[in-house]
Specification:
It is globular and about 40 Å long. Helix 1 runs antiparallel to helix 2. By secondary structure, it is mainly α. It has one domain.
């Protein structure tokens, strides 16, 4: 297995795209159960990003944490 090196920006961009993909799938899902599953997956992607980047203590990371968290909300929360 070859070793891949990712920058903070690449990891953040990949997670943001995955969140957007899962939220698009949720928006087009036919059942509430399936919608919830896609939203939970998006939230899981956010949590993985948090786990990987938590030692990066910069203003950029804190701002992106807020932005990504706002995208996914919390599971089982009401959407406006």
């Amino acid at each position: 297995m070859s070793k891949s090196l990712w920058t903070y920006e690449e990891v953040t961009a990949a997670v943001e795209e995955e969140i957007k993909l899962q939220l698009r799938k949720a928006d087009s899902a036919l059942s509430e159960v399936t919608r919830g599953t896609y939203r939970d997956y998006a939230f899981g992607a956010y949590l993985a990003w948090e786990a990987v980047t938590r030692t990066c203590l910069t203003e950029q990371r804190f701002a992106e944490a807020r932005r990504l968290a706002n995208m996914v909300e919390f599971p089982n929360s009401e959407r406006p």
